[in-house]
Amino acid sequence: MANNDIAIRFNEVSFEHGPRKPILDEVSFAIRQGSKITLMGQNGAGKSTIFNLITGELKPESGSIFVAPRLTIAYAKQVIPREQLDLTVREFFEQCFTETVWDINRHIAEVLEVVHLNAPLDKTIREFSGGQQARLLLASALIQDPDVLILDEPTNNLDAAGIEHLTQFLIDSRKTCLVISHDADFLNAFTDGVLYLDVFTQKVQQYQGDYYVVVAEIAAQIEKEKSRNAQYEKEIIANKEKANFFANKGGGMRLVAKKMREKAQAMEEAKVDVRREDKAIRDFEIPSQPELGGEILNITSLQIMKNHKPTEKKANISLCKKEHLLLSGPNGIGKTTLLETLAKGTAKGAVIVPSVRVGYYRQDFSTLNFEDTVYDSLAAVMSERDEEKLRSVAAGFLITKEVVYSKIGSLSEGQKGLVAFAQLVLLEPGLLILDEPTNHINFRHLLVIAKALDNYAGAMVLVSHVNDFVAQIRIDEVLDLSSL
Questions:
Q1: Rounded distance, CA 101 to CA 99, Å?
Q2: CA 10 to chain centre
Q3: What distance in Å separates the CA atoms of residue 342 and residue 337, rounded to the nearest whole number?
Q4: pLDDT in tens, 155-207
Q5: What is the pLDDT of residues 32-55, one digit of tens each?
Q6: Are 180 and 39 in contact (CB under 8 A)?
Q7: What strands lie across the sheet with 459-463, from one edge to the other?
Q8: What's the angle, vertex CA 105, arms to CA 99 and CA 108, rounded to 5?
């Protein structure tokens, strides 16, 4: 493949995050200019690392990375960095450039129109909802007018209208696009190739075709490899048995036995490493606070956002044990703010029974201390320290002994989500408050998580834009904030 057709090429690239944590092992692939590529792999495999290697933020241990001359790259990460949350909208876009851009207000207005967002330039990033921040991230990449657009989980926090708009933009775009997402329908709408990063072998395989075709091809390849290995295993056993038989005969038969063993060894070497598909987390239960009875949460009024201004509305919500409430409404109406104030006990017009333990899953994981180890984060929520229980729960969420002593800040976003769910299991809350709990989570885990939430016996308040996920959970009441 000639370099003049290539936007990006990895040539035997290896990379590791610290000692004994390999991410890439002599990885090679090429991305054509104008192609739209999906990067697949389980949580923590190193997908975002590949993006950071492309941008130059990280450097490979060995091998080389070719980026076409004068090629410009813009990277919309999964979340806005914490240090940028207090910037105004204007300052947020200004820091996308190394030099002063004249008439930047006009450029900002143009990209905000593209992402369908009304954002006053003097408003701080922190004041926007998760969905609005997702649109700002996309706009911050688009304003740079790059040749290559890199998007890391761009549909997280977006409502249906936002996902539809982004999908159409990518279909129409002529830019080279690299995307990480766990939204299969979104990916299938525009993908023409897939890079699959295997977390076990640290290798990348490249496939052509739309997302569903590639997934089917991977599944077929795995079955073929399993079948081939099974046949080899059968022949290996037969040759070893023959070798033992002839060896016991003595004399010239020992030479025959030796050849049989050599044949068995050759077959052992011919066996392929079957891709171990992404493991799903184990079935789990979030125990509810046992001593609670009667009403747990009462809401008589709440604040919603209209035209970026808070407006108080009357409500009549009463939640007891085993009652689940779904909050719905478009991005920016105030769902995240409402959940945050409920969790903190500062929501006007809302009362949580004082003895209730509140389990709060926040979409940006800001309830986690990024400087703590995973072990410390899990131990901190337990009423009584139980080493065996902690490690058992952690293992169920694929938190291995290598990961459990890592700092939260070093984990992938998906791994942080699994730590947050493990905390909820160990906390045994009476009230669950969940803000977009599918964000960053591998799709293989979602069925397990939905089942656990469906069976949760405490009171629950849920916000989620993923309809297929919500459909698997028992919902007793829906409050559409846009109808208030």
A1: 6
A2: 24
A3: 9
A4: 877 777 788 888 898 999 899 999 988 777 888 889 999 998 887 788 898 98
A5: 999 999 998 877 788 889 999 999
A6: yes
A7: 358-361, 431-435, 459-463, 324-328, 477-480
A8: 85
In this structure, is residue 83 part of a structural domain?
no
- Alpha-carbon gap, residue 255 to 246, rounded angstroms: 9
Question: At which of 215, 238, 260 does a domain end?
Answer: 215
- How far does Cα 444 stand from its chain's mean position? 11
CA distance 286 to 361: 13
- Say if CB 357 and CB 342 are below 8 A apart: no
The closest alpha carbon to 180, from 317, 75, 323, 31, belongs to 75
Closest CA to 152 of 71, 81, 63, 66: 81
Strands 36-40 and 193-197, sheet pairing: parallel
**Both tokens of residue 169?**
């933009």
pLDDT digits (tens, 9 = 90+) for 277-304: 556 789 999 999 988 888 999 999 888 8
Q: What's the domain range around 36?
A: 3-72+146-215
Confidence label for 380 from pLDDT (cuts 50, 70 and 90):
very high
CA nearest neighbour of 135 among 191, 80, 190, 73: 80
Distances (CA, A) of 429 to 133, 351, 416, 426: 29, 16, 19, 9
CATH number at residue 154: 3.40.50.300
User: Bridge partners of 124?
Assistant: 88
**Are 206 and 352 in a shared domain?**
no
Tell me if 423 is assigned to some domain: yes
Q: What is the DSSP letter of 348?
A: T
Residue 160: name the closest of 415, 421, 470, 477 by CA: 470
State how far Cα 202 lies from the chain centre: 18
Instruction: Give the domain-ending residue among 186, 215, 244.
Output: 215
**Residue 314 and residue 211 share a domain:** no
Whether the Cβ atoms of residue 247 and residue 254 lie closer than 8 Å to each other: yes
pLDDT band at 1 (very low <50, low <70, confident <90, very high): very low
pLDDT of the residue at 331 = 80
Tell me the two tokens of residue 369. 């201390």
432 sits in which H/E element: strand 431-435
Is the residue at 311 inside a domain? yes
pLDDT in tens, 385-438: 899 999 999 999 999 888 899 999 888 888 999 999 999 999 999 999 999 998
Domain check: are 171 and 302 in the same one? no
Residue 208 has pLDDT above 60, yes or no: yes
Beta-carbon contacts of 240 under 8 Å, excluding residues fewer than 6 positions away, are 260, 261, 264
